[in-house]
């Protein structure tokens, strides 16, 4: 069984040469990070992930959480690992110092989160959602609520959940029925929520549920939902824990994957109403939810990268060790020698590296935004807004292909659960669904992020990509790859023009546009990496084998992934007519 | 829960208008079939599949086979279903009359097998493998062996298995180590085989293992393997069953899917050697194996179609029933109204119909071959040979996408096992692996089927497609679709030219060429269907809604699938250099 190793060298390369980490540190006044602190952080994270969390990954798959007398009991070993995780301060990386946080840049937290998600995605979902909840509380909650709830979440003593979905309201939040009735300084919450990740467990002393519900005077639709804090245990004035609140996990889903992560049906108010506290103004739940969600969406995109990396490592080890086939001289060879296995491995490797580059870049752009002057903020916000659905949508879709290739490389052994390759495929299958399906990401991209500003933000991004490509210094061997990527920019412009001219087709062409942009951004960053690698390889102490491999991987990516851009464009240009042509009764 | 329904109307359309079934019946002297008998057969098969086998599909998934005291015990209910299946004569459809068969054309059997595979793929694997074994025995075994073994297999009293794979010999049969030592009129077989589908069960009185092993004087490599019949129970001279043979299932795999199908580790000769009988000449096992395998490969392609159809039906029902979203007028709508859900459903529907057309055509071509004059036989054999890897490779790969779309349409519910959508994805994942991986199919296509005749068979096929497209009478709305398909033919010719000019790149480009051809053949047949539909819609009694839908589905297929052809060509034209560039140590 292959063990997981954090791909430290590639992550460092992306930090140093794709996102200009030291420049970012200087910009945001954190020079200590560039000069050693970030190394220590990444080394420590890798150690915990590789040694503690990764070995629990299969255990969680085989012995998922169960609903017992005390509520949900997580997989044996998870609680101890969580304690170690929290005590080491990992939940506090990006939180403000005022709440016990370390105020580190998001991009460092992203690299660290890659470790957690690759090591054990089911486990790492718990801190991922807690992080989103912290963001939402910091942005929208009153000082009093922040004081009570944020610090113990930052310390990891407590965890948090997002309670959005109801049986009749999946992607359609307008249909939410849960109710909140005012009672003194708090509200009484009643309703049922489904698909609540880590909705209950015994790893932390308290669980803070962020719950969408309607006030009695709420208008219909999404403009009538509000966000509430509903703690599992009520919190006394001194911060100590009081009574058990009327909020319970009543059943667990039997899922295709992420068995280690309990997915709960939560019932609020079976005994008269759970006590909850309003976050922000009444009827502004959607905005609060989006703060939480945007954070979580990038986090799910990161899961796409992370599970792909894990699947890649597993397949790579198998391809190296498995002897299959005989050369003419009688010597037997490993799977690596077979061109089609190589093709699959290279699709995995180059796909993972392109995702990592885009992921860290999107995250670093978030850091720039946080420290931006008023002048720069608008453009940076637009850029982050544009990246989010692509990171979530494209990367989680690509993760389906990468994890499936991981199974295929194992041949028959890939279909046998003991091998472990199938778990990554099963686990990955949730990624294009939760926190907004691929279709929802695409609607966000074409609607809120593109049509609403008449394509300005996207045009600006494409111009920047075009300019950078035009000025890139690349080895001659990559001239074809560069041309492909430049053609991709032209294709993207054409697709955007189609969208702007045919806004009614937006819902029909959205996914194809989103995928097109994902592949293009991946190609742009892979070529940026190749250019940097060539430049760096002239330095005397350079790891020339690694740097040459970066260039060759970019080459492969451009040859094997970029042709998909023209395919997506052709589909976009065909428009949406043939989608809706058939009468419903004829399906 | 949606129930499975055999898509009788589409299957009949393909039989009547894509493969010219009545012409075929006349050609092979089976006019009774065209005039009613085939209707009765398909109706009966649909009834058994829908009512008996389909309800056991989920049961098999949840309560897979177990290894007990008696050997392997299959899922409760399977034995009774199998008895009904055998007693109704279904295993005997295509077998010769001399052995109790009905000598019906393969294409009818293919339509019937679609029912079994859609209803319950895990169950249907058992007769599928038995069918392959019958073919191998009929083609290669002595009259004595045929007399003893074929009739009870045809009647369904016994079932059969294929014992190829060993722990160190997956796709690489040269590495087979099982041994066969002569002893009087029989041989003593020893060795271990893995991944033996339905290697043991209690549904039939006897199980006939076809086992690849080496004789003591065997040359090394694939030229030294022979095929043996190894019955679970020895057969007395009068046909009655004798002693238990020294061949046992010693463990079962814990698999991602097809839980209802026991996948056995088989041990031969633990107590001195299993008694076996040589099939054909010594050292000709590979040829025997290919007879069995070619039949099974088309059968696995059919599984790709069948599980896709099942997943499509499941997703369609959900999309019709699930209410999600609200129109401006306040009315709530089902998922079907959402363009991106439609896009996914149309990808499923049109993909399934293209697969069905190709599957039945390949099968009917096999019938023509069987009844061909010497003059025609060569070309027909070449055509069947060409279709086989495309049917197996392209259709099982497409089934991954279609079953995954089925999960996606269900949103969060798709990830919950109770829904049932995830089972199709899990079950389908074996299809591009067993009976030769996708990579192996591609090697077969580019090597044995294309380079070895300098591309003649493929050139001929492409010419026929081109000529038919040039003469097609299609509605004006499909002129763009037709052009796309014609461009696809040009792309395919270019890809073939690349292969012929760069034979060393064959293993690197094979999968892309195979996928390219699959999409192209699908487009050709969808357009053939559209042309026939337009023609038929002029008849007074025509089902015009169905016929219009056929045209619209073809339209969608051409717009959404055919752009993949140029993508595959671009990858092929890039060659294989970037695949192998990276040093193994750098992965």
From TrEMBL, chains A, B:
Residues 463-583 form the Acetyl-CoA dehydrogenase-like C-terminal domain. Its cofactor is FAD. Keywords: FAD, Flavoprotein, Membrane, Oxidoreductase, Transmembrane, Transmembrane helix. PANTHER family: ACYL-COA DEHYDROGENASE (PTHR42803), BROAD-SPECIFICITY LINEAR ACYL-COA DEHYDROGENASE FADE5 (PTHR42803:SF1). Residues 162-269 form the Acyl-CoA oxidase/dehydrogenase middle domain. Residues 284-444 form the Acyl-CoA dehydrogenase/oxidase C-terminal domain. SUPFAM superfamilies: Acyl-CoA dehydrogenase C-terminal domain-like, Acyl-CoA dehydrogenase NM domain-like. InterPro entries: Acyl-CoA_dh-like_C_dom, Acyl-CoA_Oxase/DH_mid-dom, Acyl-CoA_Oxase/DH_mid-dom_sf, AcylCo_DH-like_C, AcylCo_DH/oxidase_C, AcylCoA_DH/ox_N, AcylCoA_DH/ox_N_sf, AcylCoA_DH/oxidase_NM_dom_sf. The keyword Transmembrane helix applies. Belongs to the acyl-CoA dehydrogenase family. It holds the Pfam family Acyl-CoA_dh_N. Residues 76-157 form the Acyl-CoA dehydrogenase/oxidase N-terminal domain. This is Acyl-CoA dehydrogenase. The chain crosses the membrane at residues 509-527.
């Amino acid at each position: 069984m292959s063990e997981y190793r954090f791909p430290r060298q590639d992550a460092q390369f992306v930090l140093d040469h794709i996102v200009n980490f030291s420049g970012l540190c200087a910009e945001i006044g954190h020079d200590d990070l560039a000069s050693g602190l970030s190394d220590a952080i990444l080394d420590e994270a890798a150690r915990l992930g590789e040694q503690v969390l990764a070995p629990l990954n299969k255990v969680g798959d085989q012995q998922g959480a169960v609903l017992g007398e005390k509520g949900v009991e997580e997989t044996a070993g998870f609680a101890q690992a969580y304690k170690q995780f929290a005590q080491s301060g990992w939940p506090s990386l990006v939180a403000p110092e005022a709440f016990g946080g370390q105020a580190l840049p998001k991009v460092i937290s992203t690299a660290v989160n890659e470790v957690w998600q690759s090591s054990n995605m089911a486990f790492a979902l718990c801190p991922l959602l807690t992080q989103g909840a912290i963001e939402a509380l910091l942005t929208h909650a009153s000082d009093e609520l922040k004081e009570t709830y944020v610090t113990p979440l930052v310390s990891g003593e407590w965890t948090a959940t997002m309670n959005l979905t109801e049986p009749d309201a999946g992607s359609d939040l307008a249909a939410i029925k849960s109710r909140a009735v005012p009672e003194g300084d708090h509200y009484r919450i009643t309703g049922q929520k489904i698909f609540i990740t880590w909705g209950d467990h015994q790893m932390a002393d308290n669980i803070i549920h962020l719950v969408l519900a309607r006030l009695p005077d709420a208008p219909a639709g999404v403009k009538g939902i509000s966000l509430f804090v509903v703690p599992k245990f009520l919190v006394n004035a001194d911060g100590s824990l009081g009574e058990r609140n009327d909020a319970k996990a009543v059943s667990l889903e039997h899922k295709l994957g992420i068995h280690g992560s309990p997915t709960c049906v939560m019932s609020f108010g079976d005994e008269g109403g759970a006590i909850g506290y309003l976050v922000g103004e009444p009827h502004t739940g959607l905005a609060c939810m989006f703060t939480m969600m945007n954070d979580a969406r990038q986090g799910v995109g990161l899961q796409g990268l992370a599970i792909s990396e894990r699947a890649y490592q597993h397949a790579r080890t198998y391809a190296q060790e498995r002897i299959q086939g005989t050369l003419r001289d009688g010597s037997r060879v490993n799977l690596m020698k077979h061109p089609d296995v190589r093709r699959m491995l290279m699709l995995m490797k180059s796909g993972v590296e392109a995702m990592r580059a885009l992921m860290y870049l999107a995250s670093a752009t978030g850091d720039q935004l946080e420290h931006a002057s008023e002048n720069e903020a608008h453009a940076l916000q637009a850029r982050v807004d544009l990246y989010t659905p692509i990171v979530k949508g494209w990367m989680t879709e690509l993760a389906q292909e990468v994890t499936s290739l991981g199974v295929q490389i194992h041949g028959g052994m890939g279909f046998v659960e003991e091998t472990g390759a199938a778990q990554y495929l099963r686990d990955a299958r949730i990624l294009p669904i939760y926190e907004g399906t691929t279709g929802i990401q695409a609607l966000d991209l074409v609607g809120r992020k593109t049509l609403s500003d008449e394509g300005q933000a996207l045009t600006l991004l494409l111009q920047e990509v075009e300019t950078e490509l035009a000025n890139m210094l690349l080895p001659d061997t990559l001239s074809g790859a560069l041309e492909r990527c430049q053609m991709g920019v032209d294709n993207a412009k054409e697709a955007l023009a189609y969208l702007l001219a045919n806004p009614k087709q937006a819902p029909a062409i959205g996914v194809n546009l989103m995928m097109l942009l994902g592949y293009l951004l991946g190609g742009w960053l892979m070529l940026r990496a190749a250019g940097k690698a060539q430049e760096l390889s002239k330095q005397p102490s350079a790891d020339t084998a690694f740097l040459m491999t970066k260039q060759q991987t970019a080459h492969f990516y451009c040859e094997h992934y970029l042709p998909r851009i023209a395919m997506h464009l052709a589909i976009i240009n065909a428009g949406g007519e043939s989608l809706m042509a058939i009468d419903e009764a004829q399906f």
